[in-house]
Design brief:
84% of the residues lie in helices and 0% in strands. The protein is an all-alpha fold.
């Protein structure tokens, strides 16, 4: 009965398939985009700038995206966002083809173009992801949310991190342009699947003006301090984790000695952890309860960052990424299902956007901070030690969050 929703709910099946397909494209891009950046420049700050551009829209556009989501047809927002990503992948293909040979001394122009493309792709993703998270309660019953979220994230992990990264590594080995051409096709397919979803009509938002509508979302969050605390905690977690993710491509090359295919394979172990976490998280949450589940996730965050901070063995790094994905999935299944059940549908887009503003808005600063930390420490302690530093910082920060959660995090 675990997959009964897939068999019996057509719209959920289409949403699940579209999300899986879209995440396959995201998984390919997760390897191809930073790898292309390293081919254009070995400067840690420029590589970090690409990662920052991928996260900055969460800080800039999370709040307006919530208002748009509550006012508009959420399905059409997702379709349009995917079509924008198709166009941007075509632009990237043309940019790569314009470079006669990679790697090469190309100057800063191509890297700046890549930064702009990364920013625009992420801007479309902000709109799509906010709409995707708010559309699910309209498709499945409230009692099925944990199961639906766990299944969706497991499928997304299989596509986005188990299949996508190693596939990207193989494609890069054949030709750097291939992953971006594949992604254009993938995002077009996702848009087509979403177009087929048939949702019942919903009342449009009653607030006509933008700022009053946004204030409603902030007001609801202020009246629910547990949600606000979770959002701020998520912001701190995401800031240090995106720092580690930003440096991971250089860490894999210079500390672990991996090729593009090896880097893709390394990310695949994270996907395995995500699949395991997505399938087991509903059971763990039911057994331990929300608070203890989140404490377990925080404890694992500390452990995995220590493994990356002190280790230099590919197998140990693979185990750390497995734990990262599994514990992150446990955190997400618990907190997202809690929000979806608690927040009224008419406010879901706006409150989710406020939550994501706090929870995701710090990521670009974390990415740049990690790049700056490596750049500053390299002359002082050496390149390899500097590449370990962001993970040690992340371990210390997560340990502090765990202490805070023990003292302050309570659910009614």
């Amino acid at each position: 009965m675990a997959w009964a929703l897939v068999r019996t709910n057509r719209d959920y099946r289409l949403l699940l398939t579209a999300s899986s397909v879209s995440n396959l494209g995201d998984g390919v891009l997760a390897v191809a985009l930073p790898w292309l950046a390293t081919l254009l420049s070995d400067n840690a700050m420029l590589v970090a700038a690409v990662a920052t551009a991928q996260r900055l829209p969460w800080f800039l556009f999370s709040l307006p995206a919530g208002v748009w989501t509550d006012r508009a047809d959420r399905r059409l927002l997702m379709v349009r966002a995917d079509l924008v990503r198709v166009a941007l992948m075509v632009v990237t293909v043309l940019m790569v083809m314009s470079q006669a040979a990679l790697p090469a001394e190309t100057g800063s122009g191509p890297v700046l173009t890549l930064i702009l493309v990364a920013f625009l792709i992420a801007s479309a993703e902000v709109v799509r992801d906010n709409a995707a998270q708010t559309i699910l309660p309209s498709i499945v019953a409230a009692g099925d949310l944990e199961r639906a979220n766990g299944q969706m994230w497991s499928a997304e992990q299989v596509a986005g991190q188990f299949v996508g990264p190693p596939l990207a590594g193989l494609l890069i080995g054949a030709a750097v342009v291939l992953p971006f051409g594949l992604d254009a096709t993938i995002y077009a397919l996702s848009a087509g699947l979403l177009w087929l979803i048939a949702l019942p009509p919903r009342a449009a938002g009653q607030t006509a003006r933008f700022w009053p509508a946004l204030r409603e979302g902030f007001g609801w969050m202020r009246r629910n301090p547990v949600i606000l605390r979770l959002a701020i905690m998520l912001g701190v977690i995401n800031a240090v984790f995106i720092g580690g993710t930003t440096i991971l491509v250089l860490y894999a090359q210079e500390v672990l000695g991996l090729s593009a295919a090896g880097y893709g394979l390394l990310l695949t172990f994270g996907a395995l952890g995500g699949v395991a976490g997505g399938l087991l998280a509903p059971k763990v949450a039911a057994r331990l309860g929300m608070r203890r589940s989140l404490l377990v996730a925080l404890g694992l965050f500390v452990a995995l960052n220590l493994m990356l901070g002190f280790g230099s063995i590919p197998a140990l790094a693979a185990a750390a990424l497995f734990l990262e994905a599994a514990s992150g999935m446990l955190w997400n299944v618990v907190t997202v299902s809690y929000r979806q059940r608690l927040i009224p549908d008419a406010l879901l887009g706006r409150v989710n956007s406020v939550y994501r503003f706090f929870g995701w808005g710090a990521m670009p600063f974390g990415a740049m901070a990690a790049g700056a930390l490596v750049t500053v420490l390299t002359p002082e302690i050496g390149r390899q030690a500097a590449l370990h530093a962001p993970y040690l910082v992340a371990a210390a920060v997560c340990a502090g969050l765990m202490a805070y959660a023990v003292l302050r995090l309570r659910f009614d």
